[in-house]
UniProtKB/TrEMBL annotation:
This is SsrA-binding protein. SUPFAM superfamilies: Small protein B (SmpB). The keyword NAD does not apply. It comes from Clostridium pasteurianum BC1. Transmembrane segments: none annotated. Keywords: Cytoplasm, RNA-binding. The keyword RNA-binding applies. Belongs to the SmpB family. Signal peptide: none annotated. InterPro entries: SmpB, SsrA-bd_prot, SsrA-bd_prot_CS. It comes from the Bacteria. It is found in: Cytoplasm. GO terms for molecular function: RNA binding. GO terms for biological process: trans-translation; trans-translation-dependent protein tagging.
Length: 157
């Protein structure tokens, strides 16, 4: 019997999401994929940029996620930008629906990763940042970097 690793291996990440949104809450969910998509994701050919999730008829779908066609997949390849169903419990879907019914909240996938050989998505409830919030975050980050640099120089002396 093969031993499965317990570590999570991140395959794709949506770095821009943390810049564009305030992350309120996040949860792990499964994704309904076909075999060639899984192989392509394992090769790191997934892109979460500009992706989002929506709730239709009590089901959650991930949209705008680009998974490049698998090179050896020929006829089994699917449309790279198709909607993919996310696997969640009814209670979790109800909770997400309550959040997204409020103005300004949306569902954003943060990362795709492997957990026990299965592809999982970290889905978050996010609220959009205004331009001035983004500028404040960039200034804060630059200030922290400068403080760290100064501390490092003092430690050397």
């Amino acid at each position: 019997m093969a031993k499965q690793s317990k570590t999570n291996k991140t395959l794709a990440e949506n770095r821009k999401a943390r810049h564009d949104y305030f992350i309120e809450e996040s949860m792990e969910c499964g994704v309904e994929l076909v075999g060639t998509e899984v192989k392509s994701i394992r090769l790191g050919k997934a892109n979460l940029k500009d992706s989002y999730a929506e709730i239709n008829n009590g089901e959650v779908f991930m949209c705008n996620v680009h998974i490049s066609p698998y090179e050896q997949g020929n006829i089994f390849n699917r449309d790279p930008l198709r909607k993919r169903k996310l696997l969640l419990h009814k209670e979790e879907i109800g909770k997400l629906e309550a959040y997204t019914s409020q103005k300004g909240y949306t569902l954003v996938p943060l990362s795709l990763y492997l957990k026990n050989g299965r592809v999982k998505v970290q889905l978050s409830v996010a609220k959009g940042k205004k331009d001035y919030d983004k500028r404040d975050a960039m200034l804060e980050k630059a200030a922290k970097r400068e403080i760290d640099r100064q501390m490092k120089e003092r430690m050397k002396q």
